[in-house]
Amino acid sequence: MKSEWTKKKFSDIADFNPRETIKKGAMAKKIPMDVLRPFCRDISYYVEESFSGGTKFRNGDTIMARITPCLENGKTAQVSILNNGEVGFGSTEYIVFRAKEGIADKDYLYYLVCSPEVREPAIKSMVGSSGRQRVQTDVVKNLELAIPPLTEQEKIGSFLKLIDDKIVLNDRINNNLAA
Question: Which residues, listed in sequence order, are joined to residue 6 by a DSSP beta bridge?
Fold first, then answer.
């Protein structure tokens, strides 16, 4: 019920750019910015590279472009291509969101990050020279959002995930038919 939703700062439900470790020179899965498709949850492929720097993440994390025009174009995804316990990396131009355990659902968090309630203030907060503007992460961390209880987040996230899963399945069927 909407009446049970409470106002919370985004940083109360998600960790931003959580600390992860990959040794310099270690081979790891990298998700370059050009891999992310606008408003598409899934990551279609990755490259394996020697780690020399970048934003790090785990499965279940949401990554969002923080630079123009990638954010405006909807480059946001949920990481699901890693093995258990594996850490991947990508562009320094990502903001990584990790749902706080027992407080937020990872699927709900992904759809929240994609929503106008998060994207519009993020886009409005961009600063820097023309063509190289970046989101002010602190603005996003401090967003006041109406958040449902965890059980309702799980229902919402699960429902929206089913729709995305159906879209993925339909795309596969269409690709098979085209082939």
Answer: 147
